[in-house]
From TrEMBL:
Record has Hydrolase as a keyword: yes
Location(s) in or outside the cell: Secreted, Extracellular space, Apoplast
GO terms of molecular function: beta-galactosidase activity; carbohydrate binding
Protein name listed in UniProt: beta-galactosidase
CDD domains, A to Z: Gal_Rha_Lectin_BGal
Gene from which the chain derives: BGAL9
Family assignment from sequence similarity: Belongs to the glycosyl hydrolase 35 family.
Catalysed reactions, semicolon-separated: Hydrolysis of terminal non-reducing beta-D-galactose residues in beta-D-galactosides
Keyword Disulfide bond carried by entry: no
Matches recorded under PROSITE patterns: SUEL_LECTIN
Amino acid sequence: VRAQTSVKLVEFDLPTVSNIFPAQQLRHHNGIYYISKSWMTTKEPLNIWSKNSFTVEGIWEHLNVTKDQSDYLWYSTRIYVSDSDILFWEENDVHPKLTVDGVRDILRVFVNGQLIGNVVGHWIKVVQTLQFLPGYNDLTLLTQTVGLQNYGAFLEKDGAGIRGTIKITGFENGDLDLSKSSWTYQVGLQGELLRFYSEENENSEWVELTPDALPSTFTWYKAYFDVPGGIDPVALDLKSMGKGQAWVNGHHIGRYWTRVSPKSGCEQVCDYRGAYDSDKCLINCGKPTQTLYHVPRSWLRASNNLLVILEETGGNPFEISVKLHSSSLICAQVSESNYPHLQKLVHADLIGEEVSENNMIPELHLHCQEGHTISSITFASFGTPGGSCQNFSRGNCHAPSSMSMVSKACQGKRSCSIKISNTVFGDDPCPGVMKTLSVEARCTSPLSDDGFFQEAVSSF
């Protein structure tokens, strides 16, 4: 495709934001604009919660039960523990353990409504220590999907949830096999069914969240915020949260998970050619896989926007912030050996004409997003330039007019195009050598000096 995209966070000074925010609804601290200082919260039940649940014998496959209605599936059963069982464990200094042959993607284990363990993986074996009380104990399992496989052999047979034997070990009389036991199933969360995220929701009991509240699992949060002015895209920074989902004005903006990627595996030089696998061209090793989540401006109002968060693992909503993000740095690189612009070929075909020799010349195109123009050309070289975006360098062959010609064609415009031809840059700087044009430019808008934190995206 001859296209790459890199992302860089750029922090600007913050002298004032009076021209961006119509009201002082965002909490400003250390140069960061937090969504709100006032949050409401409500808890999600951690067990079977609806009359729509059903009870059957055995463990059923996750996807066949949920039928894409929800990421979540509850399994619940009751375990009787006698006084002699407790005495046996105490005398032998052992604990009962839940063992599951295979789990995909996430398993959360609850005993009597308390979360005691989490497992994440692709059909991995689970061994989880349990803590029981004398008498009947509720053992509740929650399986979750984190996306569906969409390629590979027999993907439709891979499934999700629990697979194989499930049992509890450590009893004096032997293992307790739960594979054929009676299990009660519940699809989804109560907050999903009652639409806690809806602006018209009246079905939940929200209470005020105090700033010193401890992080809580499976908790709903909501707050209202104003949207920054202008036309730059808006994003929520959720790095203070763990894992969950988010809605703005009733619209689902997606699932978030601030999971840190492995520290090793990234390559300084990346080449997408050849066979593809998931470990190819990794970036941002040792950092969260994603923290910024885009919110379309068409979903936003000038003020009083509702943000609802479902947090599964525990986070701090008071530190959720809003950021603008725009393509302030754009790059392009086109060689004489590249194909001409597809639009030229399509246009000639539509009007029934032969493609002219002039239309067969490759072109380099630069394009700023709406409301931005090319303010400066920071690098331009026609010849044999090296490097990549933000790290271009001149080669042994370089046309002296490169910078002036590109600046003349592009500066002050939202978009521009330049033919990859010796005639554009004057004399051939190196006859007989295949030449390339590399360009790096900056896009700015009338609000570029607003002092707001922005995500600068360099596209190459």
